What does this fold into?
Amino acid sequence: MRLYSAALDRTLLARAECVRAERPWMRRWRAAGERMMRAVDRSAWRRLEPGAGDEELLAQTLLEVRACAPRGAPRPRVMHVIGSLAAGGAERQVVYTARETKRCGAADTEIVVLNPLEGAARHYLPLAESGGVAVRVAGASVDGPAMERVCGDERLVRTLGAVDPAYRAWCTDLAGECAALRPDVVHAWLDHANIWAGIAALAMGVPRVVLSTRNVNPTHFPSLHGPYFGAWYRVLARSPRVAFIANSRAGAEDYAAWMGVDASRFRVVLNGFDAESMRVGDAQALARIRTELGLEGRRVVLGVFRLSEEKHPLVWAEVVRRLLAEDPGLVALHAGDGPMRDALARAMADVPADRFRMLGVRADVGSLMTLATVVLHTSRKEGTPNALLEAQSLGCPVVATAGGGTVDAVEDGGSGALCAVDDVEALQARAGEILRDPALRARMSARAAAFVRERFGMERMVRETLDVCGIPHASLGGAP
It folds into this structure.
């Protein structure tokens, strides 16, 4: 599958074997020739050696590469890079961005994924294809001239050969895709793709590189953090060709502080939300769900989130237990899955089955949100919580913790309520107010749908993203 990286490995191996086979006088002659070349050309790449581990020399080499001349095509080309098209918030946003950019004619777009499009990793592939966006797997197929450049350009061979072998293959395959597609902009999403695509794009002279972060910095998530992330982010930030996007103010400030750069280095672009993508059942379907879950004539508090530590599901459980104790007519539902599923089940084990249900992953989340009285969210860290946007777009008020980007996703007192992280009493009180006061819920319901339309419109997101990419967008029309 990794055709470009496999070819580069063969090139490097052949060179190493030739060096080992050299006689002493040949080595001295070659070394003298290299010293003469370095005296004439002091570029950093001439001092690079495969596997030498000189990260600063590699950084200098990348920063010395000049941007390629424009292709002269009618429209610029954007190559989006992400790990997969699995069912995640960033994956949805990359498809929305590529689709809407292509639709409005501002640029030609393609998506390059790092992992095979198999099983769950192809979740958003139909959405991309329905919008006419081509999707390809990095290194899965070969472009002849691109392969010649990756394995035949001396500077490029030395540069890619000096990348840490732990992630050299990813960088090389992305360099091959850059050579094949010749993008004017590489737009990467999430930390691994940001680092690997950033290295590849600078090495290939891509004129503009945009790196999108989608939460707070990766040290908050040890299982997702790479030990080289911080150093490489700081290197990439030294290039004037590189721009950074965060999807929340909290995320931008957190990343900037961690990287040691000014927060102005990041442009905050809030997520775009496609209200048409929310599927809600008709009256008969909603009636069936009410009957199935025993919701007829009862108030509903709903949680829709991954059962993982950063979502604080046990805080959610404690708030729900208190709400159930004070309101006999309340039912609690949770939709989602994750590593803390068993922990949540244990925390709620003594709650009667007709008052609490763990639903697992559901395809009818939109219908559940339509039936819910309030959505409760207790996360400690968020980028932009898409589930809260979905709920509000359907007129369901939310009560959430002010963790990370959630403060941008909820209008406190308007579309819902914000409370401090882990403040069980406040969460209980604010959710209880909405559950007990139909007039308050009606006001918040009306405001919630309008709030999402105003702040998280798709056209606004595309405009702001194109601004960061340096792509004109007059064809979008209308006000920003």
In short: DSSP finds 20 helices and 13 strands in the chain.
